[in-house]
Amino acid sequence: MPPNLTGYYRFVSQENMDNYLRALDINVVLRKLVCLLKPDKEIIHTGDHMVIRTITSLRDYVMDFDLGVQFEEDLGPVDGRKCQTTVSWEGDQLVCEQLGEKRNRGWRHWLEGDQLHLRMTAEDEVCIQVFQKVK
């Protein structure tokens, strides 16, 4: 049975965000700004339904979805694109595949103790973020 990810998580660290954003064709000014942000995550996980809020001082991004059901995701606040997104479990990892203009785009969340890990991919770039559960 997959873990329940419900909780509030504070930003701890990230690696390779600038190159990941460059792979998404984000302009240099926005890349520099995003690299300075320290986002929090709030996850509400109820059965096969999830809401993942990424919270920053600039703006929030909300994903509201049913596991295993493809939906059109509007990534306008991120990079101006739309993609066909499916989120499902692979063992204990929550895996998101985002089909669209960019190859190999997606992410995966998993827990290690009370830390939430996020691995984001686009093209050949990988960005890793770590968050600490606070409630």
From TrEMBL:
GO terms for molecular function: lipid binding. InterPro entries: Calycin (IPR012674), Fatty_acid-bd (IPR000463), ILBP (IPR031259). GO terms for cellular component: nucleus. It is found in: Nucleus. Keywords: Nucleus. Belongs to the calycin superfamily. Fatty-acid binding protein (FABP) family. Monomer. This is RET5 protein. It comes from Mesembrinibis cayennensis. The gene is Rbp5.
